[in-house]
Specification:
Elements: H1 10-29, H2 35-49, E1 55-62, E2 65-71, H3 77-80, H4 89-96, E3 100-102, H5 112-120, E4 125-132, E5 137-145, H6 153-192, H7 194-207, H8 211-225, H9 229-241
Antiparallel strand pairs: 1-2, 1-5, 3-4, 4-5
């Protein structure tokens, strides 16, 4: 499909820009299994992609407790943390479960201490949108402007869609992290078993590879032969243990 660029309106461009943002976020987070790394990528991409937004931050809570922040510019990280207690746009969005908007911080009086810090850092407008990740993790994505009245309807709609999409992506990140942790625990248990540990040691010696890679080789062999992992390990250990014929 080809678009006639002469007929594009600002609304159409906004839709295309938002679609491009969501696609870039998906590509950037699809394989990440570290929550902090995912947040860092999220704020970086967002700050670069949303017109009118100079910086982006994320405030995260886990089981109701502070769980870190991410900021596209480290100078502004203090605006996303909980150093101001519950008096900030991010915490307002999280508590109320609704988007919080302050288009002009020069006239804002809802969060005096936070607003003073924001002004000092050059922030003149903010949108904070709540992000539901999973049963344990929630947060707020915070969009900052360096001039008043830049964060209008277009940016508000983008923030709403961004928060929904980010919640899904971050939930997937946390799920991958949990699965990787469980896999690591299973691998540790398997390596602790005598015959599997011996077989892994044989493969490490033969291939000069680390234990995780050797265990992967053992698993691949078990899958190809359609037999249990321990049986493959026993066969390998038995084979290398046989005295060679002279």
């Amino acid at each position: 499909m080809r678009l006639d660029m002469r007929e594009l309106t600002s609304d159409t461009l906004g839709v295309l820009e938002t679609a491009a943002l969501l696609r870039e976020l998906t590509a950037g987070l699809i394989a990440v299994d570290d929550f902090d790394a995912a947040l860092a990528e999220l704020v970086r991409i967002t700050a670069d992609a949303v017109p009118g937004v100079a910086w982006c931050g994320f405030t995260a809570l886990l089981a109701g407790e502070p769980a870190g922040v991410a900021a596209s510019d480290p100078r502004l990280a203090e605006l996303d943390d909980l150093g101001h207690g519950g008096e900030s746009p991010a915490m307002n969005a999280i508590r109320r479960r609704e988007m919080t908007i302050a288009a002009d911080l020069t006239t804002e009086d809802r969060w005096p201490a936070w607003t003073e810090s924001a002004r000092r850092l050059g922030v003149r407008g903010v949108i904070s949108a709540p992000v539901d990740v999973d049963e344990q993790a929630i947060g707020s994505i915070n969009l900052y402007a360096d001039r008043a009245a830049l964060l209008g309807t277009r940016q508000q709609l983008t923030a709403m869609l961004l928060a929904e999409h980010a919640g899904l992506l971050l939930a997937a990140v946390r799920d991958r992290a949990r699965r990787a942790e469980r896999a690591g625990e299973r691998d540790g248990a398997l390596l602790g078993e005598n015959v599997v540990g011996q077989a892994v040691g044989v493969i490490m010696t033969q291939r000069g590879c680390p234990a995780p890679e050797a265990l992967h080789v053992l698993r691949s062999a078990a899958s190809s032969l359609d037999i249990p992992l321990r049986e493959v390990a026993e066969r390998l250990v038995t084979t290398v243990s046989r005295p060679r014929e002279s």
